[in-house]
Amino acid sequence: MAPLITHMYTADPSAHVFNGRVYIYPSHDRETDIQFNDNGDQYDMADYHVFSTSSLDPQGPVTDHGVVLKTEDIPWVSKQLWAPDAAFKNGKYYLYFPARDKQGIFRIGVAIGDHPEGPFIPEPEPIQGSYSIDPATFVDDDGEAYLYFGGLWGGQLQCYQKGNNVFDAEWQGPKEPTGKGVKSLGARVGRLTQDMLEFAEEGVREVTILAPETGEPLDADDHDRRFFEAAWMHKRKGKYYFSYSTGDTHFLCYAVGDSPYGPFTYGGRILEPVLGWTTHHSIVEFPEKSDRWWLFHHDCELSKGVDHLRSVKVKEIFFDEEGRIHGEKQPAGK
Prior knowledge:
This protein has 334 residues and is mainly β. 0% of the residues lie in helices and 41% in strands. The strands form 5 sheets. Strands 5, 6, 7, 8 and 9 form a 5-stranded antiparallel sheet that branches. The radius of gyration is 18 Å and the shape is globular.
């Protein structure tokens, strides 16, 4: 499977269909002398490009719409423009992005544009009450919008175990809860206000993933299934699919629920480990209302295994009659 984009390194692709085209909002990886570490300092991204294509089957040409937002445009940011996402509502396009503030703490910002390809003008401050990384937006059929976010280790999610507004610096670095009977930390989700710029009054809550065999939340030591980073939400036939990366075990997994808030019951793996440490994705239906679904993800094949130089790829995924996700098309009746 060839990379979609070969003239630069791109990762963490968030794909959406706007105006009949697939728009891709990825991170922009770049060369760096920073040594690899489990805090993610080598992922030193400084701007965002937007890409689009009119066809996935057959694969059509991909347009690079150029730089749409950069570090120096955003007053509160110090460094590391990590994985973004985008949404459309109220006739406007919204680009959500994580970055470190001047104190080195990750926050989530939002920038606004008139077109899906940007450019985007950032709000002067991060979203109040936001923290950690990997924002993913989902606009439901009723028009309500939600922002999912969170990432362990370098993403700092584990620093907020005392509450949404309490940053515990003792938990910084490659740390997370562990031990017998200890439950895993979940991603966060908050409903957005109608202007898409803040969290609604009820604030942010934790996303719970249940083990199907027990009906209980996943254990913290269940690294093959627990949430690590890269939250994504899509909806199919009335069911909400929450998908994510397991981080240090390198799987893309999914869980299914009846509400955008969850709880979600673990459903299985979408993608096995790829070349490179990180794995991060999005899932989109294209063409719209076709029930053909596509997994955008990345690996390090183009850079020959350099973890912080990744490339976006896409493959079709499939649903069986029970709504389970498969990486390959299933025989009829399966």
